[in-house]
Amino acid sequence: MQDKLTLMIPGPTPVPESVLKAMGRHPIGHRSGDFQAVVQRTTEQLKWLHQTDGDVLVITGSGTAAMEAGIINTLSRGDKVLCGDNGKFGERWVKVARAFGLDVEVISAEWGQPLNPEAFRDALTADTNKAIRAVILTHSETSTGVINDLETISGYVRAHGTAITIADCVTSLGATDVPMDAWGVDVVASGSQKGYMLPPGLSFVAMGERAWQAYERSDLPKFYLDLGPYRKTAAKNSNPFTPAVNLYLGLEVALEMMQQEGLEAIFARHSRHRAATQAGMKAMGLPLFAAEGFGSPAITAVAPEGVDAEQLRQEVKKRFDILLAGGQDHLKGKVFRIGHLGFVCDRDVITAIAAIETTLQSLGLHKGTMGSGVAAAADALG
Amino acid sequence: MQDKLTLMIPGPTPVPESVLKAMGRHPIGHRSGDFQAVVQRTTEQLKWLHQTDGDVLVITGSGTAAMEAGIINTLSRGDKVLCGDNGKFGERWVKVARAFGLDVEVISAEWGQPLNPEAFRDALTADTNKAIRAVILTHSETSTGVINDLETISGYVRAHGTAITIADCVTSLGATDVPMDAWGVDVVASGSQKGYMLPPGLSFVAMGERAWQAYERSDLPKFYLDLGPYRKTAAKNSNPFTPAVNLYLGLEVALEMMQQEGLEAIFARHSRHRAATQAGMKAMGLPLFAAEGFGSPAITAVAPEGVDAEQLRQEVKKRFDILLAGGQDHLKGKVFRIGHLGFVCDRDVITAIAAIETTLQSLGLHKGTMGSGVAAAADALG
């Protein structure tokens, strides 16, 4: 059967019909009063979502563009930085930082384990010369389904006094609490195809006051991703370059939906879906990949024993047209990942678990009682 | 009346319903086989549009991202370059080049005049040490409605032997002939909201073999816009970062429409619309801003005497809901610009001229016989 695809990957995530309709409108001029009104509203909505009084700037680009912008607007060639690395996106931070000539000290953890906040504290405390300019890390590590303790780590960075915190919140923003100002996170990068309930194409960089101070001394070359002109034009409800107008029209609708649901309800929904997914997997004898207690609210990675994860994933796609994500790099074939991020309701979660359970059963690989996965998930949903 | 806007600006340009429908579909996974098929088809279509055997890479970003990518992937800090500057987008090239530490020699012409190819020839001939690494220029200068002689200039660059040609073809590609390989242009940058008949959000960089040779020695720092990974993943029908999936779905449909119309027919259509617009304006006593014989096939800039260009533009918008573009920078209020780029038919052109003519008449500013503008345009359309 065609055209019945359900996305349960960590991005692109499902998009509401009302957002698709807004995006499918004829474009309007990006310098028109009508579009300025859209920029004005979305700017306010984005500050609400980030829980910040700082600036949230909209870039036409992938999430990586926002990550790069966070680095090249606050740092200078040769600057010392600490990078957290416990998965593919942590690795990417290290690559971006090195591409721009930063002096990178990596604080790593095994894939599936969270970053150890005390390792950051130790490195920051030992830095009596205040050479460290930034701590760069991923909040929700999409490749492993692990959530890192951004709050504690950014607290240690504040205690250091000089360094700033730059965080990839691509799959945490809009899924779990990221009170940027309250936690003292200076730069937050995110992308539209995640908690925002939009297709990919827009990315977002939030900059606090300390990040703008760092901007003043940053010497890395930049033009398209120079956030100075973004800030200046945002004050006039505009953009420095022609933005993705139709995605912006969708953004306004999606953020309105989020405001109607409310931040607490959104976070509670993601938390319930994480609990249900984890309970369902465990009940079927499918071990979780992330360390206990550190599962991401956006995505659950599953490491089945005695089952080819890729075969299971492909069977679920073939029979039920539900797209799960595979494992990345060395986890290919060993892990599959269930996205429960963004526009996801209880029905989607029990559907995915029922489909996985049915597929396991039909492959003769169900290790428990058929129905136990759905039962456990339903119980967790309450 | 609402929802009856017609865009006659140089971007965003009007978008066909079939393209909007494709864009309004639920997104699919960007690593799925279905999406790989889209990448494969659009890659072939893009080569056809660029008339090249080289690579045409798709970036999620504004046109300026493609311009920047052209520079940072082929040049190194301190490299000497010649930049053509005869308008706002020529100025932007100079700014981008300087932002990345290039040694820029500017060859300028007054706004409204074309760049003088002989000035490029002289500078290249005088460069016996072969210090000049690139010649950077705008093909169709959107701010003034002037088309520069890219063919002749890139011929001089080839004769130089070492330098490459980097061209902003944002409002020329898909409007007039840009046979990249035949002319020996090494890098061509363009954007989706122009001749492509798409909303903004995608940009394109075409790289010939000499451009890839230059890539090998380029030392400018880059990550998001590093074209190496774009080339590598394009060979596998994929992208290095999550692309704007929905715009890609629209791109496929738009390029199919272009292939059905055919390049010669597309260029002839733009040429006729330029002729009709120019004839209509002249017949109403409205002087063209671009020097005679150098009008862009994408946009006609008009410099009315004794008429506030901005007032005329706003009246046309208010009364007829046709959006014309204003003048940029020092041309504000002195010039208005009529976009006839992309998904524009004869009806759109005579409608715009009739609306301008009616507005002039109602303001008591028509200098000729009422109806003369439409008559001249109709005559030129044939």
Biggest interface: chains and residue counts?
A-B, 50 and 50 residues
How much helicity do the residues of chain A have?
40-55%
State the separation between the terminal residues of chain A, measured CA to CA.
33 Å
Which fold name fills CATH's third level, the topology of the largest domain in chain A? Aspartate Aminotransferase, domain 2
Give the CATH H-level superfamily of the largest domain in chain A. Type I PLP-dependent aspartate aminotransferase-like (Major domain)
| Main CATH class of the largest domain in chain A | Alpha Beta
Please give the order of strands in the largest beta sheet of chain A: 2-10-9-8-5-3-4
Main sheet attributes: strand count, strand direction, barrel closure of chain A? 7 strands, mixed
The oligomeric state of the chains shown is homodimer
> Nearest-angstrom radius of gyration of chain A?
21 Å
SSE-based structural type of chain A: alpha/beta
DSSP summary: helix tally of chain A: 14
According to DSSP, the number of beta strands of chain A is 13
Average of per-residue pLDDT values of chain A: 97
Total domains of chain A, how many?
2
